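From the methods appendix. Each design record in this collection lists the tokenized structure first, followed by the designed amino acid sequence. Records were kept in a plain field format so they could be parsed without special tools. The example shown here is representative of the layout used throughout.

RECORD:
FOLD TOKENS (255 positions):
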């Protein structure tokens, strides 16, 4: 019998399934975007999603948070069946699922401080002082302590991405969905963002889906990767496995 150690307790915990998507299907008019998608994500796991532009990566994660209604399929996140939730239940689960949008989605008329206080506005159980503490901690996590009184327009592209990340992380989500977190950034800033994603995973044992075209980001962040093609998952494996794939099309992502 296997000896009980902290490590194998952790290992068995790591096998808790946090997200389970089965037979997900989504069509827009005659455009069959997702035909039959099946994905499982374990506690604390980073799953990277590859796929050509227009292959349905953003649609996939929007279905998962109920922003898009799928045609068919079942999506379980944190033991809840997403499609069956009433609006208040959906809102409460969305607080546990952080979404870093492709665009960043900051409020340009609010300061950095106000942007970070915004997700906390409905939390009656936390005092104003505690909220300020959370804001300061969130900024420190992404190295933006000095920008608290600035407007988003005064920040660089990379700083805006980091601020978007800080705002998403302030509610300490159990699941993080990153849509192209490094697109449009220089290689050094991209690397910083990728390392932040890794830090979040380590610090909070977050389970994440990371959509990216940036193979440097994938290499840093992925525990496992899947490739979306023509509405289904065409391949699955670690970074190293997919990089050495027999399939030329899959290898082309790595060139
Ligand atoms: N709300 C919508 N209504 C109609 N069609 C949509 C809608 N959202 C997405 N689509 C279509 O679904 C397909 C997949 O879009 P999606 O945004 O998921 O692609 P993607 O893989 O994220 O691409 P990219 O890498 O460019 O971000 C596209 O053909 C797109 O036009
Ligand atoms: Mg997209």
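DESIGN:
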């Amino acid at each position: 019998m296997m000896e009980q150690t902290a490590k194998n307790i952790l290992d068995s915990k790591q096998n808790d399934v946090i997200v389970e998507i089965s037979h997900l299907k989504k069509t827009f008019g005659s455009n069959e975007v997702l035909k039959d998608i099946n994905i499982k994500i374990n506690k604390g796991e980073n799953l990277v999603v590859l796929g050509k532009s227009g292959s349905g990566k953003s649609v996939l994660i929007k279905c998962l948070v109920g922003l898009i209604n799928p045609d068919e399929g079942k999506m379980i996140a944190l033991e809840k069946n997403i499609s069956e939730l009433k609006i208040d239940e959906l809102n409460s689960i969305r607080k546990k699922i952080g979404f870093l949008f492709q665009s960043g989605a900051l409020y340009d008329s609010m300061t950095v401080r106000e942007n970070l206080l915004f997700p906390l506005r409905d939390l009656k159980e936390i005092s104003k002082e505690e909220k300020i503490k959370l804001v300061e901690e969130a900024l420190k996590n992404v190295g933006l302590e000095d920008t608290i009184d600035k407007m988003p327009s005064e920040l660089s592209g990379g700083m805006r991405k980091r601020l978007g990340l800080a705002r998403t992380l302030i509610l300490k989500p159990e699941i993080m969905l990153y849509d192209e977190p490094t697109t449009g950034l220089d290689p050094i800033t991209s690397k910083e963002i990728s390392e932040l994603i890794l830090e979040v995973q380590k610090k909070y044992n977050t389970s994440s889906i990371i959509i990216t075209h940036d193979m440097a980001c994938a290499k840093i962040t992925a525990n496992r990767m899947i490739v979306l093609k023509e509405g289904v998952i065409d391949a699955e494996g670690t970074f190293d496995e997919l990089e050495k794939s027999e399939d030329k099309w899959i290898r082309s992502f790595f060139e």
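APPENDIX NOTE: The first helix runs from residue 6 to 14.
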